[in-house]
Amino acid sequence: MNPSDAMRAMIEASGKSGRQVAREIGRSDSFVSSTLAQGVCPRADTLAKVAHVCGYQLVAVPADVASRLSSSSGGIVVEYDGR
After folding, report:
1. Mean pLDDT on 5-10
2. Beta carbons of 55 and 15 less than 8 angstroms apart
3. Using one digit for the tens of pLDDT, what is the confidence trace for 15-38?
4. Could you identify which of 15, 22, 47, 49 might form a hypothetical disulfide with 27, taking C-beta atoms 3.0 to 4.6 angstroms apart as the criterion?
């Protein structure tokens, strides 16, 4: 899952609106919707803030460990290809 999709998944799982999440992280009301519509890769600090207000924690783990994680464990695995 890419960072933008992870952001969408966390917001949906939280039951909050994008507008509510944007306000809670101190951004404009349209921030989440415009970020997701454009498919923009959010900065790590922004993704961490979104995770926090949605009840998640952003954690970095070695790639071999991340490959063994799955969404069935309740987590969201973000893969970034360097682009």
Report:
1. 92
2. no
3. 999 999 999 999 998 999 999 999
4. 22
Instruction: Tell me the pLDDT tens digit for each residue of 46-57.
Output: 999 999 999 999
- Measured between alpha carbons, how far is 52 from 21 in angstroms, rounded to an integer? 10
pLDDT at 79: 67
Contacts of 11 (CB under 8 A, 6+ apart): 17, 18, 21, 32, 50, 54
Q: Are 11 and 21 in contact (CB under 8 A)?
A: yes
CB atoms near residue 18 (< 10 Å): 20
Q: Which residues contact 9 (CB under 8 A, 6 or more apart)?
A: 1, 76
Q: If 0-12 CB within 10 Å is exposed, 13-18 middle and 19+ buried, where does residue 57 land?
A: exposed
- Pair of tokens at residue 65: 């460990």
